[in-house]
Design brief:
Number of helices: 13
Number of strands: 12
Oligomer: single chain
Structural class: alpha/beta
Helix content: 40-55%
């Protein structure tokens, strides 16, 4: 079993290996003082793993309740959040209890925000079951829900007590869903690790998945340790996301998945940066080749005028302009501050 220590304001471990799901109860038990847990998951994940997790918790002496919500980004909202609060209150959960977030990024973000805000904060554990949640969203303490004005605009920083990544869960994903998650894995290689980028380009990804996940968690953990509240270096993790969030909003968070939107954002910005001399020659083509290897798109027909307008609603839009992440080479990235006019010229070039 691989273990990565995340030394944030409250340190915790990320455990990575195959076969961890049925050990979840014994891994969580030392953290659950009251021996009560609420498993929060969506209906798709519940159908595959819900009872296994409850059984594992019960076997470790933890009484487990389960809250299940409809799957999909459209459930990541205040309506779902209020239902979680009502469920927790009805079942008598207190600060001495623990929430278990089981599933992908939507479940982790929503359950995490519920944990951050219910009774002003209770402990939670992440059990991510998708590529994107194991490689990225389960680590770092970002929790949030969407509102009509934009994605993840209401949330809190709330670090988990433990993250359990069972790589066997990735075997149940459809090829399309696995590919979608690879966008965040590629992002980590682009911003911080040419070695990871080269492994992804040259090796069989699924055969090396435990090592790849460990590298991703280590990259994400190091960035978060240096900048827990996203005031500086952590902004590098937004590579591709400025345009991605605009694309998602353009399609009303349906039809275009998050990973596909991030892939398009990374490719688009890297091609523009290369043409402007902000990126080494050939990097955009190398990135495109890896994105295509992973079954991810490079372009989208959405009009740039509209994407520019929607970009201004993103969290990276500050009163003084925009923070744009540019990769000058594989494994090398920086945050470039642009005025709104400069960003418009950049995007439309």
């Amino acid at each position: 079993m691989e273990k990565v220590r995340i030394n944030t304001s409250r340190a915790y471990d990320v455990l990575i290996d195959s076969g961890l799901l049925d050990k979840a109860g014994e891994l969580i038990a030392p953290l659950a003082a009251s021996k009560r847990a609420c498993v929060i998951t969506d209906d798709n994940v519940d159908r595959i793993y819900g009872e296994r997790i409850v059984s594992s918790l019960n076997g470790a002496g933890i009484t487990a309740e389960k809250f299940v919500f409809p799957h999909g980004e459209t459930s990541k909202n205040h309506s779902t959040l209020l239902k979680i609060y009502d469920f927790l209150a009805e079942k008598g959960f207190t600060r001495s209890d623990i929430i278990v977030a089981l599933g992908g990024g939507v479940g982790g973000d929503t359950a995490g925000f519920a944990a951050a805000s219910y009774m002003r904060g209770i402990d939670f554990v992440q059990i991510p079951t998708t590529v994107v949640s194991q490689a990225d969203s389960s680590v770092g303490g970002k929790t949030a829900v969407d509102i009509p004005a934009g994605k993840n605009l209401v949330g809190a920083f709330h670090q988990p007590r433990l993250v359990i990544c069972d790589t066997d869960t990735l075997n149940t994903l459809t090829p399309e869903f696995f590919s979608d998650g690879m966008a965040e894995v590629i992002k980590h290689g682009m911003i911080k690790s040419a070695e990871l980028f080269d492994i992804l380009s040259a090796e069989d990804i699924k055969k090396n998945i435990v090592d790849i996940m460990k590298r991703n968690v280590t990259i994400k953990g190091n960035v978060v340790e240096n900048d827990e509240r996203e005031k500086g270096e952590r902004m590098l993790l937004n590579f591709g996301h400025t345009l991605a969030h605009a694309l998602e909003k353009y399609y009303n968070f349906s039809g275009l998945t998050h990973g596909c939107a991030v892939a398009i954002g990374m490719s688009t910005f890297t091609h523009i940066a290369e043409r402007r001399g902000m990126c080494a020659a050939g990097v955009a083509d190398k990135l495109d080749a890896l994105l295509m290897k992973c079954g991810l798109p490079l372009t989208d027909p959405a009009p740039l005028d509209e994407l520019f307008r929607l970009s201004l609603g993103d969290k990276k839009h500050l009163s003084s302009g925009m923070n744009i992440v540019i990769c000058s080479d594989t494994g090398k990235s920086e945050v470039v501050k642009m005025s709104v006019d400069e960003y418009e010229n950049f995007l439309k070039s």
